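Researcher: I'd like a structural prediction for the single chain below. Treat it as a standalone chain; there are no partners to consider.
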Amino acid sequence: MLFSCEDEGYLTSTDAQLKFSADTVTFDTIFTSIGSTTRRFTVSNPYDEDVLISRIRLAGGDASNFRLNINGEMYSELYEVTLPARDSIYIFVEVTIDPNGQNLPMVVQDSIEFTTNTNFQSIKLEAYGQDFKLIKSERIKTTTWTAEKPYLVYDYAYVDSTSTLTIEPGTKIYFHKGAGMYVRGNVVADGTFELPIIFRADRLEPSYEDIPDQWNGIVLYSGSHDNVFNFTTIKNANIGLQVGTIENEGYATVALTNSKIENMAYAGIFALKSKVYSYNTLIANCGFYGAALLVGGEYEFYHSTIANYWGNYGQAVRTTPSLVVSNVLVVENSNGEQVSYNGDLTKATFGNSIIYGNIGNELELGNNEKNTFNYLFDHCIIQAPDTLDTSNTNHYINAMIGIEFDPRFVDPYDDYNFELDTLSAAKDVGTTKYSEKFPVDLLNRSRTGEDGPDLGAYERIEK
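Model: Treating it as a single chain, here is the predicted structure.
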C-alpha cells in the first residue's frame, strides 16, 4: 500500500494533518422539520504533495440529522478524496431537526470524521432547534395564540371578518418567505414590557437578523377595527403594518403602542384613509417610507421616533422621505392611466416626536386643495430644509428644524440604537402636555423628571 501511494504521488506520512477553517460548525435556532440554511467550511492541504483522504463520513451515518455536500454530491460517507498540494475543498452542511413535542430549544449534535494515512480528525456539528405550531394557508376563526410554542406561518394567516385573533404576551410569530398576516376581523396583540410579542421572518441565523423583505407583512383591511399592537416588534418585512385598503369601503383602526417597526423594504406603516393612534413607537430604517399616511384619515403619534437611516443593505439609495402625510394618492391602473384617490385628513397630530434620517428632507405634505388637510407638529424635531415655513401655529408649535437640532441617536447605522446621546437636542425640550399622558418611555423609564420630557420614544436617563 505504501508503494502504491508513492507511485501515485501522495503524501504517506502518518503525521499528516488536514487544516480546517473551523473546528465546529454551528447552526443557530432553526425550526424542527423545516431545515436550515447551508453552512460551509474548508478542508485544506498545507503540504507540497497531494494528500489522499481515505474516508470522509458523518459519524451518525444515514440516520444523522445533518447532510453533507462534497463536490456537488450529497453523501453521508465518501472514500478516496484527492486533495491537491496547497489546495482546499469546500464541504457544505445542512440540517433538519425532527419535531419532538418539546417547547424548549434542543440541541442536535454529530461530527464529520476524516481519515488520512491512518490519522483521524473530526469536525463537530451542532444545531439548535425548536418545535413550533404550523399555520399554513389558514383561515382563522376567533382563537388565542399562546406563548407556549412559536408559530410559523407559511403562505398566509387570514383572520376572518367576524373573528378576533388574540395573541398572548411573549408569543413569537415567524413568517416564511412570501408569507403574511391578513386581517378582516381584528387582532389583539397585547404584549407587556417583560413579555413583548414578536413578528418576524423565520430565518434566525445572525446574518439575517436585520435583512428586510423576508416576508410580506401585516395587512388590516378597511373594515377591520379595534386592532391592538402593544409591546410588539415587527421587523424585516416588505410593509410592516398596512392599515386600510384602497379597494375596500370604510377604514381600518389600530392602536399601535410601545412598539417597534424596523427594517422594512418599502414602508413601516402604510395607512390609507384610516385611523392610527400611536405612542412610544419606533419606526426605523425602511427602503421608502417610515410612515406613509395617505388619502386622509385620522392619525395621532405621541412620543414617537420616525428615523430612517436606510442604506446598510446594498446599493439602493433612498430618496423618499421618512414621513408622508397626504389627502391624496395618485396611482397608475392596469391600463396605464392615472387614478386619483382623495379623502379628508381630519387629524394628523405629532406630539413630542422626532422625524429624522439621513437625507435632507424627511417630511412630505401632500394637499389636493379640495379635501380637509389638518395636521399639527407640536414640539417636534423635523429633518427638513430651512425653507419650510413653520410660522402657522395651526400646523407648527415649537417645531425644531436645522442642523442644530440633531437628535444624536446613539448608533443608528450599526446597532440600530435610536436612544438619545447625552448631547441630543431632543433632551428636555418636550411639553408636559403629552408626557403626563404617557409618563414612561418605550423602555419603561420615567419621563417625569424636573427638566422636562425628551422628544421621541426614548427618555435619556443620565447615570
